[in-house]
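User: Run a structure prediction on this.
Assistant: Running it now.
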Amino acid sequence: SHGGCLRIWPSNGRPPVDVAPRADRLVLFISSLEHEVLPAWRARFALTTWLYNKRDTALESFAEELRQRKANGQLNAKALLQALDDDDDDDKDDKEGCAAESDGDGEDVMLDGQTARKVLMEILRRKARAGHTREAVAAPSKG
């Protein structure tokens, strides 16, 4: 009645959902969903917490590094595609199932096919969840 609703747009294209502010109400949702807080005409208080998964953060960092290398002309796409095509399950202890990629300093970084597949599949999953409405992967470069 005094505004301050949380509006969330479902990723499936359905109409937005308004969640009225109520005392002691806990609302959890994936932050990649489009959302906003509507204007309030009385004081409203909210506590926001972000939870991060180390595995996803590392994957996002790696994906961002690949994107930056591509933008700088340093990504060897042919080597990456070759790594994706290689079946390296039997070659984990040697470099035959790996592809070389320039790290920008003239050094090659070994990228195995399994890692490349996992990275690209995660990027595709994130883009699908985001509905292609915005960039789905963004993070600082891998360290």
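Strands lie at 6-9, 17-19, 34-37, 98-102, 108-112.
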